[in-house]
């Protein structure tokens, strides 16, 4: 397998603190990589750098042989969940996904309903997003990341706020995505994710560095 993602000497400082310290990392096409670390270890910052949402002080990121921030602002065909997405509080789950999908106009209403069901939400639910529980918000965030069938999936703590059924749903979804050849990077400290057979590799992150 070829390297789909290549990060070279990534360094990032925030308010005088080094949050990424000369990190180099490669991820093969179709690989399922887990970034393991405590809160504040730097694993979320790695996802932000790969996604193009954060500019580095030094170092480069290549996704599919294109330099992020130079040749491409953001990777093509990327699904991302970092913290809670900025959904519109007064919209239903469907209305929020419909609004986001209209930007690229890639998917139909039926496909939106299907992804809502796939993450374990009720496609007929008329509740506004502001009435959602934390678990429902997490599920909708995962739906948003998946809805355009991305080649690259970046998920930050995707099992947060989910009960055992929700965790199983997420793991089943990730298994299907891996079978499609999707490249997946998950930041997590959840044992259900770390010990899952579909994970190819676990990288430990601590104090902005990769550790053995």
Automatic annotation (TrEMBL):
InterPro entries: AAA+_ATPase, ABC_transporter-like_ATP-bd, ABC_transporter-like_CS, ABC_Transporter_VariousFunc, P-loop_NTPase. Gene3D superfamilies: P-loop containing nucleotide triphosphate hydrolases (3.40.50.300). Keywords: ATP-binding, Nucleotide-binding, Transport. The keyword ATP-binding applies. It holds the Pfam family ABC_tran. One of its GO terms (molecular function) is ATP hydrolysis activity. PROSITE patterns: ABC_TRANSPORTER_1 (PS00211), ABC_TRANSPORTER_2 (PS50893). Residues 5-211 form the ABC transporter domain. This is ABC transporter domain-containing protein. It comes from Bacillus cereus HuB4-4. The lineage of its organism: Bacteria, Bacillati, Bacillota, Bacilli, Bacillales.
């Amino acid at each position: 397998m070829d390297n789909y993602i290549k990060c070279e000497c990534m360094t990032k400082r925030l308010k005088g603190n080094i949050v990424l310290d000369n990190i180099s990392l490669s991820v093969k096409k179709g690989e399922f990589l887990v970034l393991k670390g405590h809160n504040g270890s730097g694993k979320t910052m790695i996802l932000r750098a790969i996604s193009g949402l954060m500019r580095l002080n030094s170092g480069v990121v290549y996704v599919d042989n294109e330099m992020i921030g130079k040749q491409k602002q953001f990777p093509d065909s990327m699904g991302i969940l970092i913290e809670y997405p900025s959904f519109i509080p007064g919209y239903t789950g469907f209305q929020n996904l419909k609004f986001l999908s209209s930007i690229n106009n890639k998917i139909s209403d039926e496909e939106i309903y299907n992804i809502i069901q796939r993450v374990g939400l009720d496609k007929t639910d008329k509740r506004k997003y502001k009435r959602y529980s934390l678990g429902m918000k997490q599920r909708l965030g995962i739906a948003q990341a998946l809805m355009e069938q991305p080649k690259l999936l970046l998920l930050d703590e995707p099992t947060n706020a989910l009960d055992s059924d929700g965790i199983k749903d997420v793991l089943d979804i990730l298994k299907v995505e891996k079978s499609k050849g999707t490249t997946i990077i998950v930041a997590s400290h959840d044992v259900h994710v770390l010990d899952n057979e579909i994970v190819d590799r676990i990288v430990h992150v601590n104090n902005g560095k990769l550790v053995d």
